[in-house]
Amino acid sequence: MPNHLEELYDYEKLSINIILASTIIFSVGLLLNFLDFQNFLTDFIYEYYLNPILAEKTSDAGYNSVNTMTYAFILAMFVVALAAFLRYFDIDASEYTIIALFPYVLWASFGEVVEDAKMFDASLAGYFVSPGIHFQTAMWVILSGGLAYILANKSKDETSLKTELNTISSLLIFSQFMIYSWSISNSDVVIDNDISIAPLMLIGLFSVFLPQILDKSLSAFTPVQRVVYLVGIGGSMIFFSALASYAISVPSEDLILWPLIVVIGIPSLLAYSMYTYGATSAKELSNHGLIAGILPVSMTEEEYIELKSDEKDLIEKHRKKAIGAYPVVFLAVAGQLLDGLATWIGIDFFSYSEKHVLSAWIIEKFGTAAGFTAIKLGLGGLIWYFFTISNFEHRQQHLRLLIGLAMLVVGMAPGLRDVFRLSLGV
User: Fold this and answer.
1) 156 and which of 160, 279, 331, 353 could share a cystine (Cβ 3.0–4.6 Å)?
2) How distant, in Å, are the alpha carbons of 56, 110, 279, 417, 421 from that of 119?
3) Distance in angstroms (rounded) separating the CA atoms of residues 262 and 44
4) Residue 124 belongs to domain spanning
5) Mean pLDDT across 285-294
């Protein structure tokens, strides 16, 4: 008899249907435009979604109230649908998955800064603004994870499997190096300003050998996590090395480093504090095979609420402290603070402006970007509180991870982009 807990939830089915319907509607609008058929749907899509993206290539505009709300809604639907997808393929739902995916936050942020510096040629520049950057990021995650999944499901000994995983990781990193370094080396900015790409060449080629260098340190990762993590780290190093090439071409007096120290340092201290505060409690639960906020197999939340047992008492005793020690929580909280600090410093100290509709409204109401930072810190507190009180059923573990990942991405990714742009004078 199938386990009812492994079936799709109604809300998962709804999310999948909404994504499919949205994709069909969007495609119809584009098709009608291709057929040169004047209609409301095509005009609406271009006015609120496509034209802002096209404008972003030159003016970095791109957000309005309609697309902002749409992006937030679709992101929520995507998180729910993807959670069901990952559960179907039995992808590991441990904290290591968050760690494996974390490099792609850096990948997207560094890639956008490279585009902001106009270091990509015309062939790739358009793919590094929203939403192209998001599709690219997802492509590398799916490609690396998919290949690792196929290799892992073939019968072979552990040594051979590890060799194949490292090889495919190196090949994917090398592919990124060839694609992106070619575009960067042929960009007008690099050619016209005679920017040395030696750091890009040296660090980029070094990144190809990361799978072999980090081999023994990744023993706790599943095959999928290993390849996804390595490809993300390698790609991030390639983009970082491109930024290093740009930095050495800028007069030293034009480089501003203190925002990097503040914006990255303070959230890092917060994350470390959360981890150390809850590590003992998290370990105590782990010793009993438990994770704070995740219910035992085949137990619903209703059953847990009614439950009276020593195991439940242990969970409730430690959950408030233990929650902070999980990467899915402390990274999400730190990401919100990072974004708040980057926005505050950029606007109040360097006269940058806020392009996101809601963020701009908040800053306007407070009269200072420091108010936005306070709101972001409060949001981080709400994220911590949410995970503290939430009970995720066993088949909702992937949803738990993706909620944390979404909160991490929407905070840390734009924050890192902003502070690196500021520091490089872009």
Assistant:
1) 160
2) 16, 12, 42, 15, 13
3) 42
4) 92-249
5) 93
Q: What is the pLDDT of residues 100-110, one digit of tens each?
A: 999 999 999 99
Using 50, 70 and 90 to split pLDDT, how confident is the model at 360?
A: confident
- What ranges make up the beta strands (E) of 270-365? none
What contacts 339, CB < 8 A, 6 or more positions away? 376, 410, 411, 412, 414, 415, 418
pLDDT digits (tens, 9 = 90+) for 31-51: 999 999 999 999 999 998 888
Burial per residue of 177-186, b for 16 or more beta-carbon CB atoms within 10 angstroms, e otherwise: beebbebbbe
pLDDT, tens digit (0-9, with 9 covering 90-100), for 331-347: 999 999 999 999 999 99
Task: Answer yes or no: do 118 and 11 share one domain.
Answer: no
Q: Does 162 lie in the same domain as 117?
A: yes
Same domain membership, residue 96 and residue 199: yes
pLDDT, position 1? 34
Under 8 Å between Cβ of 12 and 88: no
Confidence of residue 27 (pLDDT cuts 50, 70, 90): very high
What is the model's pLDDT at position 59?
45
Handedness of CA 325, 331, 336, 341 (dihedral sign): positive
Kindly state whether residues 330 and 381 are assigned to the same domain: yes
Which residue, of 29, 62, 88, is where some domain finishes? 88
Which of 64, 88, 112 is the C-terminal boundary of a domain?
Answer: 88
Same domain, 124 and 24: no
From the number of C-beta atoms within 10 Å of its C-beta (0-12, 13-18, 19+), residue 62 rates as buried
Asked if residue 238 and residue 333 are part of one domain, the reply reads: no
The packing angle between helices 223-249 and 103-116, to 10°, is: 30
CA proximity to 108, closest of 142, 145, 134:
134
Task: Say whether both 356 and 391 belong to one domain.
Answer: yes
Exposed e or buried b for every residue in 106-118, given b needs 16+ CB within 10 A?
A: bbbbbbbbbbbbe
AA identity, residue 147:
L
Structure tokens at 171: 């090949």
Same domain? For 242 and 376 the reply is: no
Q: What's the domain count of the chain?
A: 3
